[in-house]
Input
Amino acid sequence: MAIAVKTEHLTKTFQHIMHKEPVNAVSDLSIEVQEGEIFGFLGPNGAGKTTTIKILLGLVYPTSGQAWILDKPAGDIETKRQISYLPETPYFYDYMSGIEVLDFYASLFGIDGAKKRSRIEELLKIVGLYQDRHKRLSQYSKGMLQRIGIAQALVNDPKLLILDEPTTGLDPIAHSEIRDLILKLRDEGKTVFLSSHQLSDVEMVCNRVAILNRGTLIKTGSLDELLLAGQFKIEAENLDKAMIEKLKEVSTYIDSKSNVVIIEVADGEKVNAVIDMIRPTGGRIISILPQRRSLEDLFVEIIREVNKK
Ligand SMILES: Nc1ncnc2c1ncn2[C@@H]1O[C@H](COP(=O)(O)OP(=O)(O)O)[C@@H](O)[C@H]1O
Ligand SMILES: [Mg+2]
Output
């Protein structure tokens, strides 16, 4: 499969007029996104997400390193037709209606006549704004604005959509509407580069993520890899008190209130250690289950860990 986004040792340093110290907005960032993926680009405020996106779009030049989009260097004019971008705080012509805005953008892309009409109708239906198409944007809610923004970003039928924090500041209903919309895009085979600090959204829609902190890549991988890594829950019975005391040394949590003892450990090797301890003494292992963490737990743990250094 083709590569949708790639960066190699990407670095951007800003020199503030007011400060002596330069700001490393992005430091030595190397990531790769395959076509068809919904890629979560995560990090707290100031992590360097928007700067990276601007470099990918050719709006900002990197200090060093390189970036490619759809196998072409970032900023390539021809590839711009195949990508689309919804900024963090989109600007809308709020005296226009939803249908007028889409009409305007379709014309910019040279779509005309019957093709334009059917494309606009289709987009309004995809984002659930067909009923409200004649309302002015000044009367749209924040969630509706974000949805018309996504519709606008889809006008040119892009291969790759770059969404910068599309759910920030939305209420829970609007959140889940945007989430459903991204899932629809995934089913259509679009590639989505989704910057966010809304972890539950990312957990529900993304296949892979990169976690950024202060411009540096902290972790990247598939959600399964990252969230299933490590923790196991073991259930066992026929354990005496001495054994339970010994197990406390290798476990992160133990519940011995009933006959069935629940032991939680932090990695696969500890699972083996627990088995080796229990088996020779006549204890019985009932089940061993990998535990899935939430992305929120992982994120908080990682960011805390690196900020301690
Ligand atoms: N044009 C700029 N001039 C100076 N500093 C900037 C500029 N743009 C971003 N920064 C700084 O770079 C860092 C990363 O910002 P940004 O990419 O916007 O992060 P995020 O989108 O993850 O919140 C921040 O410290 C920010 O203040
Ligand atoms: Mg940002």
In short: The chain has two domains: 3-226, 231-290. The chain has eleven helices and 14 strands. The first strand starts at residue 3 and ends at 14.
